[in-house]
Recover the amino acids of this structure.
């Protein structure tokens, strides 16, 4: 979001280099242009301050208080944070979210990469397939799709009946605490279109000569994929892993709707944000909910840091060849 | 957008909703489904015709979303002027200064407390304050699938004991393969009746009125009955949501408010009726009249108009005719007499409340402390987890007491 400022830095639009030498008239013009720039940015700046930065600061303060939305917040220090570790439902929510991220994200990326590899080759109807596979990403996050999901995975609905044909009887996934989470995993995997498009763009960048040269040397398709394609698209892969992991941590709407607003049977879909929402808006424990939100931020930051640290080992950028 | 923002500012300014010609606008919100929305809109048209200087804007959600939205609005200092309310929320929002004490409006003659049935206005009274005016009353009851009960040859009778009830569930399951009950052991209001039959109650003024041993016994039995197949598997209950397992055909009876029969009849394919609450001693059911009420916001800038609106909604006979028993048996005698049910279901509800009142079993409601809404949800959730076998009885009981403690403090 902060990009408009940084982008200008090295772009040809940057006026700073000329500024010191410029006559006064040009200087004034530069100021006017800056002013116009800020004016155009002001809706975004106002939105950022009022809707993002302000609430974040407030929530950081609430995280250290006992606050029920009505009475004045009472300072309790780190109580909200220590309370989490004694709270079995909080632990359950961490467990459920971790499971969702660890199972859902790799599956989604595998499918995205697989389909991208198929669609990267030129063949008839390619545009149609790309659009078709991308469509779920556009509508997938909507509440209505979650409703549809809920009904196709409920008892005696299409999924249940299909599985029964193969002799597997679990009843509806929606009411079954052992299965309902996989219903959510399936929903996120189904939305593989967005990372797929990014993979496609990455695959287009792989120079054909490398493949041709390798083929001349007798490398098979798998060998070429492993030794050429994968390293070449590793920055794209890294980007997708990062984005999808962060995204997965924030799952809320689908869990809320599929389990019919109660995140459960047996808290089976009590994802982190769902519990946070319950504590904040249902149980009026806004202080605790704020503390949970900051804990989530810390966890995501930590995971991101680990991913960035690990990229040295497996991500290859062009400039490495320098 | 600009007018919207302006309206919001004046709303916070304190003279919200008064336009140049002296017309006052009040906001009215409630929970329910489309059926209720149609009826309520009709009653509002009627009100606006008779009070041309008052305009009413409405807003409705289902029960869960209603209270989430209300909480956010109320904490932001912008609750609706009038809203539907229930006993579970009285102390909670009174403690937070959200509810208007209607006593002054009663004294001013804008609301009349006369002509109410059987002391039902007591429900809206907390610590000497009148925080809500009842629109309808209801009683906990046992709603039964009549067809299944007949098929099994089971006939519920007044004063039957819990032993007889559970025997009946077994007979039903043996003969029809349908579990007899949809999960009695996680319903807070039913457990309250059971405790009252035993000289206790779910709540005291500021805490729980029972101990861990009581709940352990209640939930252990409940779990055993799920395993025995005579109580619906909570998995199925979860799958049936938002329908009830009773109307979905996955249970033969369900403890709930008597006016829910209307909803189940609309939802399900069978015939539904009302049966007496089982007892310990053949007499005491522990029942009381609960009620949906109308409450007003303490921050409303039009207390008089709001009071007139409430008075109209609870006393006007025409309104009674339109609403019927949608929110329970009509609370004021004017409305009760104006509406004579013609369909079987509504007739049976009226008969049930009549019989219950005549049997002399009705007591007064136990007060619900602040946090009762959270506790009710926890009781239902943990009870469900227990039925699924996801948590041991001892752990479930401990968890419930822990969560209740937190809820009372919030």
């Amino acid at each position: 979001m902060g990009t408009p400022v940084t982008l200008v830095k090295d772009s040809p639009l940057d006026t700073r280099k000329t500024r010191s030498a410029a006559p006064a008239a040009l200087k004034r013009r530069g100021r006017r242009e800056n002013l116009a720039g800020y004016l155009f940015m002001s809706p975004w700046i106002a939105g950022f301050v009022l809707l993002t930065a302000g609430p974040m600061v407030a929530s950081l303060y609430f995280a250290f208080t006992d606050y029920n939305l009505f009475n004045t917040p009472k300072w309790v220090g780190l109580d909200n944070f220590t309370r989490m570790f004694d709270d079995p439902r909080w632990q359950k929510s961490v467990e459920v979210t971790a499971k969702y991220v660890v199972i859902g994200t790799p599956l989604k990326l595998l499918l995205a990469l697989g389909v991208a590899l198929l669609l990267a080759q030129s063949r008839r109807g390619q545009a149609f397939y790309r659009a078709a596979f991308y469509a779920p990403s556009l509508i997938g996050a909507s509440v209505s799709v979650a409703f549809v999901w809920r009904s196709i995975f409920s008892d005696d609905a299409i999924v249940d009946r299909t599985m029964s044909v193969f002799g597997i009887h679990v009843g509806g996934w929606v009411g079954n605490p052992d299965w309902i989470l996989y219903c959510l995993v399936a929903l996120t995997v189904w939305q593989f279109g967005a990372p797929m498009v990014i993979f496609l763009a990455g695959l287009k960048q792989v120079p054909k000569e490398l493949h041709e040269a390798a083929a001349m040397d007798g490398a098979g398709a798998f060998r070429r994929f492993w030794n050429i394609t994968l390293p070449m698209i590793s920055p794209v892969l890294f980007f997708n892993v990062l984005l999808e992991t962060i995204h997965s941590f924030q799952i809320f709407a689908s869990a809320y709707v599929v389990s019919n607003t109660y995140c459960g049977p047996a808290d089976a879909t009590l994802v982190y944000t769902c519990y946070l929402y319950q504590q904040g808006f249902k149980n009026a424990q806004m202080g605790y909910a704020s503390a949970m939100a900051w804990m989530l931020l810390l966890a995501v930051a930590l995971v991101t840091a680990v991913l960035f640290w690990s990229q040295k080992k497996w991500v290859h950028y062009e400039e490495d060849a320098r | 957008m600009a007018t919207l923002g302006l309206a919001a500012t004046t709303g916070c300014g304190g003279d919200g909703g008064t336009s140049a010609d002296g017309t006052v606008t009040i906001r009215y919100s409630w929970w329910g489904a489309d059926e209720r929305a149609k009826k309520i809109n009709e009653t509002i048209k009627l009100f606006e015709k008779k009070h041309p200087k008052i305009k009413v804007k409405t807003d409705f959600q289902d029960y869960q979303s209603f209270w989430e939205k209300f909480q956010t609005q109320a904490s932001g200092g912008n609750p609706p002027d009038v809203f539907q309310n229930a006993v579970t929320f009285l102390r909670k929002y009174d403690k937070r200064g959200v509810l208007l004490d209607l006593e002054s409006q009663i004294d001013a003659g804008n609301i009349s407390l006369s002509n109410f049935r059987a002391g039902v206005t007591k429900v809206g009274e907390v610590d000497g304050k009148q925080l809500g005016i009842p629109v309808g009353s209801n009683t906990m009851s046992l709603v039964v699938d009549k067809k299944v009960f007949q098929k099994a040859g089971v006939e519920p009778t007044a004063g039957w004991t819990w032993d007889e009830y559970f025997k009946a569930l077994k007979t039903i399951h043996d003969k029809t393969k349908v579990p007899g009950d949809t999960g009695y052991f996680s319903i807070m209001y039913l457990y309250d009746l059971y405790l009252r039959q035993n000289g206790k109650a779910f709540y005291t003024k500021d805490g729980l009125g029972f101990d861990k041993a009581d709940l352990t016994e209640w939930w252990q039995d409940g779990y055993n009955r799920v395993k025995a197949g005579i109580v619906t598997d909570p998995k199925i209950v979860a799958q049936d949501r938002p329908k009830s397992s009773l109307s979905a055909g996955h249970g033969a009876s369900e403890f709930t408010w008597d006016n829910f029969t209307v909803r189940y009849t609309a939802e399900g394919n069978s015939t539904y009726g009302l049966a007496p609450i089982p007892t310990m001693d053949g007499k005491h059911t522990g029942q009381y009249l609960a009620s949906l009420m109308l409450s007003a916001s303490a921050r409303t800038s039009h207390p008089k108009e709001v009071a007139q609106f409430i008075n109209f909604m609870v006393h006007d006979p025409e309104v009674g005719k339109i609403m019927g028993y949608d929110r329970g048996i009509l609370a004021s005698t004017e409305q009760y007499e104006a509406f004579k049910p013609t369909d079987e279901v509504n007739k049976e509800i009226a008969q049930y409340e009549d019989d219950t009142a005549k049997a002399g079993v009705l007591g007064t409601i136990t007060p619900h402390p602040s946090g009762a809404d959270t506790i009710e949800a926890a009781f239902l959730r943990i009870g469900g987890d227990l039925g699924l076998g996801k948590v041991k009885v001892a752990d479930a009981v401990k968890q419930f007491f822990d969560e209740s403690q937190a809820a009372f403090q919030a």
Summary: The longest strand of chain B covers residues 24-31. Chain B touches chain A at residues 64-65, 67-68, 71-72, 74-75, 96-98, 234-242, 374, 377, 381, 384-385, 388, 390-391, 399, 406-407, 410 (CB under 8 Å).
